[in-house]
Amino acid sequence: MNLQFNDEEKMILGMVRAFMDEEVRPIAKALDDEKRVPIEQIRALQEQGLFGLLIPEEYGGANISASCYSAVIEEMSKVCAALAIVLSVHNSVGAYPILLFGSEEQKKTYLGRLAGDWIGAFCLTETQSGSDAAGLRTKAVLDGDAYLLDGTKMFVTNGTIADLFLVLARTSESPEAPHRGVTAFLVEKGTPGFRVSKTEDKMGLRASDTAEVVFEECRVRVGARLGREGEGFKVAMSALDNGRIGVASQALGIAEGAFDEAVKYARTRKQFGKAIAEFQAIQFMIADMDTQIEAARALIRHAAHLKDSGRPYGKEASMAKLYASTMSRDVCSKALQIHGGYGYVKEYPVERFYRDQRITEIYEGTSEMQRHVIAKYLLSGRA
Ligand SMILES: Cc1cc2nc3c(=O)[nH]c(=O)nc-3n(C[C@H](O)[C@H](O)[C@H](O)COP(=O)(O)OP(=O)(O)OC[C@H]3O[C@@H](n4cnc5c(N)ncnc54)[C@H](O)[C@@H]3O)c2cc1C
Question: What gap in Å lies between CA 140 and CA 226, rounded to an integer?
Answer without folding.
Answer: 13
